Amino acid sequence: MLAHRRWIRREQGSEEVADALARGDLEAAPVDAADRQMLRYAAKRTLHPSDVCEDDIHALRQVGFEDAAIADMAVATAMYAFMNRVVDGLGRALPRGMDREAERLGLLPSSSDRTGAAG
């Protein structure tokens, strides 16, 4: 989560949310019940994907998510896992240009931040 802190802060508009999620403390994040349940589901899909069961889907429905949104969550977490494995398989080096695009989208710290230079 720490790598995505800047993006979380920008999207959520909250330093508190970004800090809590960067620490991996989902329960401390000041978010509504639906977002908290979505975060729990995403964490479980990421850390223990084979443990996801109908109760998890039911919990998402209980806070208002429809099946299409739940499917989007499942696909998004699967793609995240896939991309992590691609990057790991490349020795953690992104293909040429991909790092600049990720930086442009705010998904990666700026190159000056990564090198420790003021920016």
Account of the protein in words:
The structure is a single chain. This protein has 119 residues and is an all-alpha fold. The protein has helices at residues 5-12, 15-22, 33-47, 54-62, 67-89, 98-104, 111-115. The protein folds into two domains: 1-31, no CATH class; 32-107, AhpD-like, CATH 1.20.1290. It contains seven helices and no strands. Helix 1 packs antiparallel against helix 2 (15-22), helix 3 (33-47) runs antiparallel to helix 4 and helix 3 (33-47) crosses helix 5. It is globular, with a radius of gyration of 16 Å. The two termini are 22 Å apart.
Residues in helix, %: 55-70%
The number of domains: 2
- The share of residues in extended strands comes to under 5%
Assign the structural class, choosing from mainly alpha, mainly beta, alpha/beta, alpha+beta, or little secondary structure.
mainly alpha
The number of E-state strands comes to: 0
Q: Name the CATH superfamily assignment of the largest domain.
A: AhpD-like
Radius of gyration: 16 Å
Distance between the termini: 22 Å
